[in-house]
Amino acid sequence: MNILLTGGAGYIGSHTSVMLLESGHDVVVLDNLCNSKAASLKRVEEITGKKILFYQEDLCDLAGVNEIFRQNSIDAVIHFAGLKSVAESVEQPLRYYQNNINGTLVLCEVMQANGVKNLVFSSSATVYGNPETVPINENAPVGAFNPYGRSKLFIEKILTDLYLSDKKWNIALLRYFNPVGAHLSGLIGEDPSDLPNNLMPYISQVAVGQLQKLLIYGDDYETPDGTGVRDYIHVMDLAQGHLKALEKLNSGPGLVTYNLGTGKGYSVLEMVAAYEKASGKQIPCQIVGRRPGDIPTCYANPCLAEKELGWTARRGIDEMCTDAWRWQYLNPKGYV
Ligand code: NAD
Ligand code: UD1
Question: Which atom of ligand 2 is least distant from the CA of 86?
Fold first, then answer.
């Protein structure tokens, strides 16, 4: 198949490109590089020995997106493009709604006009807000509490309305838990352009000496060791989930929603210990107050994806940390 990846130069998109190319698919990438570098795609080509057709384009530009569909026979789209910082979304809500929602509207309009109706969307566990119970099922109540999370939730609703209006669409809403790790080659990985917001890239930058110490946001949660518990998933397992979702869409399922997580939760302190073991480096830490908007515990029930996609995450936290560390020490300043 010829697959269009919006936001394909980013962290999850570059790893998914490797998986798609190695499975014999062709990959077209649309990315405006607002949070990534074209070097990631060169590295994907180096890993796979295959070419990617890259368009540096903004998803909100209808004419530009339409031209990509005119020039290529696209079979399906994986829609990664979006802004993803929670803190930034609180400061710049209009920019987040404009980019994430308008970009999706443009994409769907162009897909519809060109008769392409198979779509995989990057949603997030953030749509569950503060879950009442864990593990979280797909039918748990939703309710995000920041503009980033709400943009994901609104897009899920828009895609649901689109499907209800035209049942020829096949749409997979993939709710990712916490993607971490990197490709085994150490050639591609997560490369935050600013100070990392998320735990794993922050730990990595402390380990490699770019940052002095990790601030642990709270040790007074109702969790076994008091620090926050999350479901970390290896980015290559996540990439594999996209391949399985694309295969599923070919069977004409309509609108489907899947959690992509491991089903296991690890605390901040457990992640630090695993990273220290993998890297052989000590991670200086300081306990500070809770980060506003954080929840105590979040992990998936991934059984639906196992049953309907035949997909499960295979890699554990030691492999996640080893691969993240390999990427970080081989590329201490990311792609530059
Ligand atoms: P990323 O920032 O590395 O990748 C997103 C890509 O989209 C970037 O390359 C960026 O340049 C591009 N982009 C953004 N707006 C665009 C626009 N208007 N036009 C064209 N390109 C645009 O992020 P990622 O971690 O790879 O995440 C991919 C998707 O998965 C995002 O939608 C994100 O919200 C979602 N997600 C990520 C996580 C995570 O922790 N990484 C968790 C849940 C969901
Ligand atoms: C964050 C986002 C969420 C998004 C997810 C994946 C917030 C409030 N939530 O969630 O919307 O879907 O990333 O991109 O930003 N931690 C530290 N020190 C740090 C960083 C994190 O102690 O420097 C802790 C956090 O308090 C949390 C855990 O590590 O307990 C994981 O944090 P993070 O990687 O930011 O992911 P989420 O909190 O799940």
Answer: 15
The binding-site residues of ligand 1, defined as CB within 6 angstroms of any ligand atom, are 7, 9-13, 31-36, 58-60, 80-84, 99, 103, 122, 124, 176, 179, 198
**What contacts 34, CB < 8 A, 6 or more positions away?**
83
Q: Is the CB of 275 under 6 A from ligand 2?
A: no
- Per-residue pLDDT in tens (0 to 9) along the chain, 336 residues: 999 999 999 999 999 999 999 999 999 999 999 999 999 999 999 999 999 999 999 999 999 999 999 999 999 999 999 999 999 999 999 999 999 999 999 999 999 999 999 999 999 999 999 999 999 999 999 999 899 999 999 999 999 999 999 999 999 999 999 999 999 999 999 999 989 999 999 999 999 999 999 999 999 999 999 999 999 999 999 999 999 999 999 999 999 999 999 999 999 999 999 999 999 999 999 999 999 999 999 999 999 999 999 999 999 999 999 999 999 999 999 998
Looking at all shown ligands, the one closest to residue 205's CA atom is 2
Q: Using CA atoms, how far apart are residues 220 and 302, in angstroms rounded to an integer?
A: 28
Please give the DSSP secondary-structure letter assigned to residue 102.
I
Using a 6 Å cutoff on CB, does residue 107 contact ligand 2?
Answer: no
Q: What spacing in Å lies between the alpha carbon of 247 and ligand 2's midpoint?
A: 31
Ligand 1 atom with the shortest distance to the CA of 60:
18
Extents of the domains making up the chain: 2-180+233-260
Q: Among 3.40.1350.10, 3.40.50.300, 3.40.50.720, 3.40.50.360, name the CATH number for the domain at 2-180+233-260.
A: 3.40.50.720
Residues near 231 by beta carbon (within 8 Å), at least 6 away in sequence: 125, 177, 178, 261, 262, 263, 264, 265, 266, 298, 299, 300
Tell me how far the alpha carbon of residue 159 lies from the centroid of ligand 2, in angstroms: 26
Residue 139, Cβ density class (10 Å: 0-12 exposed, 13-18 middle, ≥19 buried): exposed
Q: What is the pTM of this model?
A: 0.98
